[in-house]
Structure formats: C-alpha cells, structure tokens
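Backbone shapes recur. Consider a single case.
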Amino acid sequence: MARKNKSKKQFIFLACFLSTVAICYACVKLLPLVQRYRFAQEDLKHPEEFVVTSKVNPQKDEDFFIFNKKTKRQIIWVTLSSDKKSKSFSGFYSGEEYRNGSLYLRRQLLAATNDGKYQLVVYDWRRESKKLISSDHYFDFEVLHDGRIAILLIDKLVFLDKEGTEILSFPIKELTVAPWLFADQRLSVPYEPWVNFINVSSDLIWLENSVARSTGGLVKLDINTYKIEKYDISDLGILMDFDFNAKKEKIASSGCPIGFETQEDEDAYKQSKQKEELTIYDLKTRSKELVATSIAKCFRPRWIDENTLEYDDPAGIGRLLKELP
C-alpha cells in the first residue's frame, strides 16, 4: 500500500511538473503574440506614435521592431532571413511602414525571378504575411488611415484595398505638371519630372514633381473624391532648399543650390556673393512673402508646426522663427 501511495504521489508530481512546463512554454510562445496584438490595437488609436526600426541580429538575420515613441516600448514584429536571394530595404525611401496593426515592407529580390524584382509584403500581428504587389521597377508606397495603399509605380499611381485588390489607378501623366526648364539656366531643355510623395494626410495626398535637384510642381489628390489639382511652381526656382506646409498650403523656399557635389562647388558658391531670398509662397492666393535675405548662404527652412517656420539665421549660426499671422 505504501508503495502504491508513493508511486501515485510521484505520478501526480510528474504530471504537475509537466503541466507547469507546458503552461510556461505556452506563455513564452503566447506572450510575443499578445504584445503584438496590443500594439496593433494601440496603433488603431494613435498611429503617429509608432515607428519602425531594424537591426541585424547575431545570426545575420534582420529583426524589424515596432517602437512606441510615447511609452518607449519596443517589440520585435518579424525576423527576416538573410537569404542571399533577397534583402529588405531598411529606412530607405519609406521602405517600411507600420499602420493599422500591420508592418508593410518593400523588398528587393536580388536574383532574377518571374515575379518582379520589387515586392510589397504585409505582416500582421500573427506574423502571417501576404504579398500585395510585385514590380520589375522600384516603387514607393503610402498606407492610408483606412487601410488603402497608394503605390507610385514608374508609370502610374495605384490604389489598392487592404487585401491587395486594385481600386483604381492614375497614369503618371495625369499627376504631372507641364515640363519646365531647369532653374539652372545652363540647361534649357524641358524635362519630364519625377513624381514623388511629399505629404499624406487622412484626406489628401500631395505629390512633388522634380527633376534632379529642382522642384517645379505640386499635385494635390483628394483621396475621398480622387479629384486632382495641379500647381506650377517652376518660377520659384527651388533647388532643394525648401519645405512644404501641407495644412496651410504654403511653401517656404529659396533658390539656394543646397547639396553641392564637390567641396570646390561649395567654395565657388560662397565666393560668388550670390544674394538669396527666403520666401513663403501661398498656393491658394498665389502670393509671395519675403522672409529674409542672405549672401551665398542657404536657409534650410523647416515648418515645425502649421504656423511656425524655422530657418538658419542669415547673419549668424543659430536658427530663427517666423510666425504666420
């Protein structure tokens, strides 16, 4: 009888031990899943608080993290294999975006395939993935607040639903302001501009028309009605020294050729004593306001909010503020 009781106790102990191990193992496995689910729910309320970061781990694979700027919490969302046939763009031309509880990632295939060189893949909180689009050419994308995805391909802007089904598309020519001359007067031949995202909100997509370092047009697309408005700003002579205020529809800019190719070019510019003007151009009224002038010095304007412009002091080394009325 004593042996029976002892065996019974040992069996109960072993069963309890195995149950505890199983529960602990399940918790370890479920905890990351629960964390990702909670992050997904928080993102639906405050998407602006989340950013994507990435890092190569000791196994040479790439970990993608979701970081909450407000709470300072961070979790691993997905780990991608360091397969030599493919790689992920990290922090390059909005190569990744976290929105609506999912990670959207543009990937480039290094090996030739029949499925395109570039892919847009979405990973949800369960780490289940789905390929949304493939292209032989590089593309840019933006995930909208309602789950639609706007993708700028080489020849068109495509809108997809969250499942990847095409809703409609616009040929690039419909999003292009008429070709303009380079602000650099040494080049006198019109060029077809490159179209880029410059600002995306819950109602509007703003697109920039640029050629090399020159910006000559803006396009406003209402994402509710799909109405398009075009703005020719080629006469502003913008050469990268600008910032766009989408809420007020104002451009702070100068004609300063920021981003010199060589030190010799920069030295030559400084010695030129060229006068630069920082202005604010209102797209609605087509009026221009002079903010400041400088001698061979760029302003590097930046809108810190919809009513405040920050720029380099033309007579010093600090930054100045300009408040809109």
